[in-house]
Amino acid sequence: MKGSAGKSSMAMQFFCLELFPFFVLLSVSLSFLVCIGESVIKLPGNDTIPAVFVFGDSIVDTGNNNYIETIVKVNYPPYGQDFLGGKPTGRFSNGKVPSDLIVEELGIKSLLPAYLDPSLQAQDLITGVNFASGGAGYDPLTSDIVSVLSLSDQLEMFKEYIMKLKGIVGDERTSQILRKSLVIVVTGSNDVTNTYFGSLLRKSLYDFPSYADLMVSSGSSFVQGLYELGSRRIGVFGLPPLGCVPSQRTLKGGLTRKCVDSYNQMSQLFNKKLSAELNLINSRLPEARMIYLDIYYIPLDVIHNPEKYGFGIANIGCCGTGTIEVAFLCKCTCSNVSEYVFWDSFHLTEKAYRLLVHQILKQYMKDFICEKPFC
């Protein structure tokens, strides 16, 4: 694991810009209840998803950063105030995060545990674990700056996991689990806001189109690495409208904190390149179901019209002033968290995550199972 010695000052600068690539998409019932053990999302052809594996950054990290030396941690209050028992677990929200909600909606289990959690049991491994690390990105430099687990580190942990799984269920069943499981990749925002715009380390060498190419190239290598290890159903999130994230509105949006158009344009450029690359990979690998998961267009409407989606406030977070606070800066919280899209100035509330995850699975799940127009 990586240490943070000699990097604390720079790490803090970059961590304060930690962003999220999740927003609310479409409205669903606010009284929506989930029953673990019965899939909420019905799969075509009575297919099954035996396990879920998640890679990426703080949007989906369920506690891996607790076990490495980095300042990018949130295993203290008020994080987790609405989690089971009000316990801070290293999740960057007030409660559950998308990793948990995906397995919940698929009826697999109630939480997706961090792979580095020393209390993991054999059954946890069989039904999926989480390899994500808050602060990570496609660009290896992004992870290195804040001493967190890069995508390469996460892939190595996945290889280790596969060996453990083989020891539990054998080679044949391991192969079946990997082929039919759902893999989710969520990262990229830290590359854009921190590594590219937050310093001269990359901006002095790349214009944004060429840096987007670097990100896509890294992502392409990563998902093909997953494929080589046996994964077939791989969903990759695009970037949200980064210019409308509270932190960027505060830092770059002027006195009125408007959305930053240039940042949104950059998100769109990356998304276009990422989608095209995944389509190309699918054409080359006939068994691949690599799906680009778009989270750009509808979120713009959510940010501008939160009431239509069951929220009251979307331009600031519940924590502190809601304009810049995250992690150790988050000392106090609002009294009405259910009104907020954002928990801190970068991460969503559990309520917002739950709505988002339901819509994403409802919209895209069939694409992992079969090809159009057959389902």
Automatic annotation (TrEMBL):
Q: Which PROSITE patterns match?
A: LIPASE_GDSL_SER
> Where is the signal peptide, in residue numbers?
none
The family this protein is said to belong to: Belongs to the 'GDSL' lipolytic enzyme family.
Among PANTHER family, the record links this protein to:
GDSL ESTERASE/LIPASE EXL3, GDSL ESTERASE_LIPASE EXL3-LIKE
What protein name does the entry list?
GDSL esterase/lipase EXL3
Native source species: Abeliophyllum distichum
* Classification of source organism: Eukaryota, Viridiplantae, Streptophyta, Embryophyta, Tracheophyta
